[in-house]
Write the structure tokens for this entry.
Amino acid sequence: MISAMTRNMRTRAPASAFAVCAMMFVVMAMLPGVAASVGDRLPEFRECLEVCKAENCAPGKPATPIPLHLRLLLWDCASECDQTCQRIITGHRLAAGVNVVQFHGKWPFFRLWGIQEPASVIFSLGNLWAHVAGLRRLRRLVPPSYSLRPWYIGFGTVGMASWIFSALFHTRDFVLTERLDYFAAGASVLYGLYFTAIRVFRLDHPARASVRSVWTVICICLYAAHVGFLTLIRWDYGYNMAANVVCGIIQNGLWSWFSYREWTRTRRFWAVWPGIAVAWVMLAMSLELFDFSPIGGIFDAHSLWHLGTIGPTILWYNFLVRDALNNIQAKERLKD
């Protein structure tokens, strides 16, 4: 029988690791960063900014009124000029039949109620809802005695945090919101790999506690190194994407192998749900690799990628619940 101390340690481990990582990336996110794009360097864009700021933001000039809903999202005179000039230059380029370019590392979007990327915000909230609903169902149906439950709850907690920060970043792009979004997304991907190994290789068993501890330390160190590199050495978008893709491919491969193994053993359709989910995610991920300017000024590849991950998240929680209940029933049959 597992002692009460062992159960308590097992329950606290994911939450403690998450708390440490959360504090670390909040501190790191406050350090400054720089982003530039083709649009920033266009002479016509720079001239537009100079004229707008001189006419609307210079000392002694009448203050240009900014609506309350924009001021609540921290839009000021300078950022209003930047946003206005982006739209003006983009309109001119579309009329001239030339390519739309990025400004400050982002495509120019139509703003809605002060929200910079409305579609990405809506789809991020859709993913948040999928995690909230899935986690609520998991808590209701999977008993606390199930050994994998703490890691499943950890998965949901990290997932919810990542989509909250995603919605914040796409609402208003600041250095802080960008870094919180990237660090939270990285934590979500790495935690996915972390708990994948625990489930696939059943590292939750007491006999494998030492292996699980080593694996936990490895993942925490990898995350610390990832955040440290991006913050203290170089903010590298290419590296960040590569790191997330590598982690995603490894865990997707493990879940595909798991699905094949469980399907050949049980011949139950729910056993292939992880394989379906990861294939779905990889298909949606391809949108990130083929970036394009926003369709209608609203839907870009990134927002559609967010839309494409809602369905797999719903399917994933269905699998976690079904898998847990199946394991519990199998254990009860062995007792009988």
About this structure: Residues 39-96 form one domain. The chain has a mean pLDDT of 86. The longest helix spans residues 237-266. DSSP finds twelve helices and no strands in the chain.
